Each structure stands twice: as C-alpha cells, then as structure tokens.
Amino acid sequence: QVQLQESGPGLLKPSETLSLTCTVSGGSMSSYFWNWIRQPPGKGLEWIGYIYFNGNTNYNPSLKSRVTMSVDTSQNQFSLRLSSVTAADTAVYYCARGYGPGFGHWGQGTLVTVSS
Amino acid sequence: DIQMTQSPSSLSASVGDRVTITCRASQSISSYLNWYQQKPGKAPKLLIYAASSLQSGVPSRFSGSGSGTDFTLTISSLQPEDFATYYCQQSYSTPVTFGQGTRLEIK
Q1: Does A104 contact chain B (CB < 8 Å)?
Q2: pLDDT tens across B21-60, in order?
Q3: What residues of chain A lie within 8 A of the CB of B101, using their CB?
Q4: Most exposed of B19, B77, B95, B96 (fewest Cβ within 10 Å)?
C-alpha cells in the first residue's frame, strides 16, 4: 500500500522560503503525478501544483512565481519550495498522488505557520 | 480557472437519511469530477472519481452522477461515520480546483 509522508519546518518567518519533502513508500514513483495541496486553517483546499515522475511540472498560476517542485525518484521523494512566504501561506500542506482520476493517496499533512 | 460551487454549504441530517450534495462547474468539465470526504484533522479521502466511479474500498451507499456542469454526490443511508465535510474537485484542466466544501452535521 502506497504511503506518503510530509516533512519540513513547521514555523517560518515572513519572507523566508518554505521547503517541504514528501517521502513515498510502498510503491514506485514512475508513471504518476505527484502533487502539493494546501488548506488554510478552517478553510478549503487549494492545489499548488504537480510534478510528474520525469520532472515535468504544472503549477497553479496564483502561486507560480514563488513555487518550485523537484523530484528524486532514486530516493522516492519529491519536494516543494515556496519563496517569500507571508501569513497567508499558513496552512496544512499535503502531498498527494494522482491527477485525472482524483488524488487517491495523501500524506497526513503538515502544518506550516508563518509568523514573526 | 474553472470555478466549482457546492450546495448546500452545510447540511443537517439524521442517521439513515438519504442525502444529496450538488456541485456545479463554471464551464463544462465532461466527467472529470471527483468527490472527497474529509474528517477533522485528517487528509481528504477520495470517494468517487470520474463523476460516478466508486473508489476501491468505499461503501456502496456512496454514489455520484452527472456530466457537463452539474454533478451530485448521494449517500443513500447515512451512517454515523459519514458526518464530515465533502469536497468536489475538477481535473478537466489546470489549475485543478475544488468546491468550497459541504459540512454534513448530525441533526
């Protein structure tokens, strides 16, 4: 059974760069889309973007100027970097596998708080 | 971006009730519509994909229908574990977008 696990700092200051890693276990990363999705406290879900196993990316235009995703299939990991964070970036960040037929596998989520 | 609008935003129902949640897309998305259930403090769980296909392991009391712009999620007989927030999501085009959620509460 595929499992995903997010890791990274939980507290950032404004203007810093958010860096998260998602480790995939129980399956190969090949031929799948790997996504980042976030959810501000008490609010809905926002798709940040995906990276395909071959490195191709697709980012949400609302965040595109600040987002970079990378993948390391040898380590079964993919990563998110979000630059110049503000309080509006405070959210639970999820990694998830999938695209067309939905996101069938999710990490447990990690809360990232931006505060001075 | 394709806007997804769910109705109602919240709903009170009793165990055993039949419940329907509606999702409307701002343009046609064919059948590229997925439904999720989210419980507090947990990641969303995929229930229905491609508008009407039941995800493996999901109870058959959940069903989905629709195509184009109008979609529904139906729970045929509510169970205690079904009280949660439900989201629709379109995968017709990027950026992927979600509805605002429907909170299903116990009456």
Answers
A1: yes
A2: 999 999 999 999 999 999 999 999 999 999 999 999 999 9
A3: 44-45
A4: B77
pLDDT at A61: 98
Please, are residues B107 and B12 in contact by the beta-carbon 8 Å criterion?
A: yes
Distance CA A6, CA A45 (A): 17
d(CA B47, CA B57): 9
Residue of A45, A95, A99 to mutate, testing the B interface (most B Cβ within 10 Å of its Cβ): A45
Contact between residue B13 and residue B107 where contact means Cβ atoms under 8 Å apart: yes
Type of residue at A41: P
The shortest CB-CB distance from B44 to any of A45, A49, A58 is to A45
Alpha carbon of A92: minimum distance to chain B alpha carbons (Å): 10
DSSP bridge pairs for B46: B36
